[in-house]
Amino acid sequence: MCIVKETKAAVQTEAANSDEFSNQRVPMSARKGFLSLLTVSLGYVFVVTSMQAGGNIGAGLNFQDTVLAVLVSSVILAVLSCAMGVISAKSGLSLGLLSKYSFGKAGTYVPVAIVVITTIGWFSIDAYLIGQTTNTLFPVIPIVPVAILGGLGMTFTAMRGMKWMTYLSNVAVPLIIVFGIISMVLAVKDAGGIAGMMAIPQENPVDFGQAVAWGVGSYAVGAVMFTPDIMRFSKNARTAIIVMIITMMVGNTFMLLSGAIGSVVTGTPDVAIMLSMQGLLAPAFLVLVLNIWSTAQGCVYSGSMSLNSVVPKAKRTWLVAGFGIIGIIFALIGFYNYFGSYIDFLSAAVPPLGGIFLADFLVTYRQDYPEMDTVELPMVNIAGLIAWIVGFVVNRIDIGIGMPVINCIIVAFVVKAILGKVMGSGLKTKA
Asked: Model pTM?
């Protein structure tokens, strides 16, 4: 009888593993090592919006202040992502499952819808960019076929899960960093060295606080949304913290600075275009594909994971396939044209979730989420919804102090912590 039970448990674990543990905690036996987590995490942070934010910072500040603003914003993002990393490493829960504890069985549709809309939009933009930038580098190649092929390829690696995503990131991350550094060194040299960079006048001067806000805003959404789905595979909180510090202080800083230097010296924040302008066409194409691919596969993976948490009977691979097809269609019908409005929406809707999850982790559940099969979740956690609405509103207004993206996280944390204490978690122990 014992052997039968152990065999059944092993089969269940294997089945959950093949479905990326989308509806349960990641068991310790399935946790990943430091290096695989680091490369996947760095792959997520190599995102176009960070280069664009870096370009804005570089155009608004002198070089010395640009470097300082980038470092300050990376420190803030490191604190936020470390908090999310600790939550997911200790709980083993994905973003979708964390949402169930914070918003209830029906209430979780709100954050899941936000995440799905965000990741589909992000993926569609990446699919279009891979076609557009390829066309820029090689004008004879049309945009649409490359966008379709790229979208299908990125969907495939996401479908294969963390294992294949790790394989790709192990190749992508070192190459992007090496060629990115080469490009930045050449750009600084062309500008006359550090002294030359310091002498370049600001095209659109901004104050230091605004520059830091741009840097934080470039990946605050990713820090909240993507971190849990990666760091739930961490063996302990310490590993998660180290991985996220390196991801933000090295990876995010690298992306912001490459965008800043590229924009000021060559007129483009895109490292792939910058490489091509420097006569390095082959590395430019390689960096283009790997840079976009490493981020886009993460969008499909995380979006489908969150969706699977509310439709647990659906097979994850089918959700990934559907997710990818919809994203490709969005790319072909021109969703990229709404990039600005889309970024504005997600930058307001996603960050408050971080404050809510942190409040539940520290205050409501005291770092110990009960097993879902032992409790009955409420249909709607009113405290979670109120905290999110208040956080969203705070993010949309300027109260004159701090940064909206940070203010909304703090306010959402306070509101959820207080209401959670007053109203309780809403959980009921199953008989």
From this structure: 0.87
